[in-house]
TrEMBL record:
Residues 16-204 form the Phospholipase/carboxylesterase/thioesterase domain. It comes from Siccirubricoccus soli. Gene3D superfamilies: alpha/beta hydrolase (3.40.50.1820). The keyword Hydrolase applies. This is Prolyl oligopeptidase family serine peptidase.
Length: 220
């Protein structure tokens, strides 16, 4: 099983971490891409530790970056098989980071962009202890046909997607929200008019607010 690692940011307030936020990058990027969200979200969670692991494999669709799994074959069955194969590596990393920080599973939040969103939803909803929250940006819910029988927890989920996304169509999030709601998962959605495949300030602010709610942190 691949050993994951990536850039980290310690609690803004100093001292021991009280929460752990794991940021999962998209295809062709690496951990340095999403760790940039940490300083902004640390304003909302000053006692949180942040980590953005690099995906385990070199990207097979370009000359740089990493991938969680191959998207050469985008059939639902192939993508489901690919994400199942890599999920244990991420689950092991999450467990190891929580243990390193001396935190329970309930102190975890997952945030992912694009392919990282797919990983966050797949792994987060199958953890024995529910994460405090899952934040998914511009992604999709893979292996949705088996979710009802595999769902292990129901953390609150925020899904954010640009309505002008030409990489992952916004319909993927609309479908994910419907499937999750039907499974009893509390879902908040934010659709951004004119936004392509990316995260804008409104999406970042929505993520900060979701993290504060999840961890019971009062703005101040």
């Amino acid at each position: 099983m691949a050993t994951l690692d990536g850039p980290r940011l310690g609690p803004r307030a100093g001292g021991a971490a009280q929460q752990l936020v794991v940021l999962l990058h998209g295809l062709g990027a690496d951990g340095t891409d999403l760790i940039g969200l940490a300083p902004e979200w640390a304003e909302a969670l000053p006692h949180a530790a942040f980590v953005a692991p690099d995906a385990p494999s070199p990207c097979d669709m370009g000359p740089w970056g990493r991938q969680w799994f191959s998207l050469q074959d985008r059939s639902p069955a192939r993508m489901a098989a690919e994400i199942r194969a890599v999920a244990p590596a991420l689950q092991g990393f999450l467990d190891a980071e929580l243990a390193r920080l001396g935190l329970p599973g309930s102190a975890l939040a997952l945030a992912g962009f694009s392919q990282g969103c797919m990983m966050a939803l797949f792994c987060g909803l199958r953890r024995a202890t529910a994460p405090a929250a899952i934040l998914g940006y511009s992604g999709a819910l893979l292996a949705s046909e088996s979710l009802a029988e595999e769902l292990a927890c129901r953390p609150p989920v925020l899904l954010v997607h640009g309505e002008a996304d030409e990489v992952v169509p916004v319909e993927a999030t609309r479908s994910a929200a419907a499937t999750l709601t039907a499974a009893g998962v509390a879902v908040e959605t934010l659709y951004r008019p004119g936004l392509a495949h990316g995260i804008d300030p409104a999406g970042i602010a929505a993520g900060a607010a979701a993290l504060r709610r999840a961890f019971g942190v009062t703005p101040g």
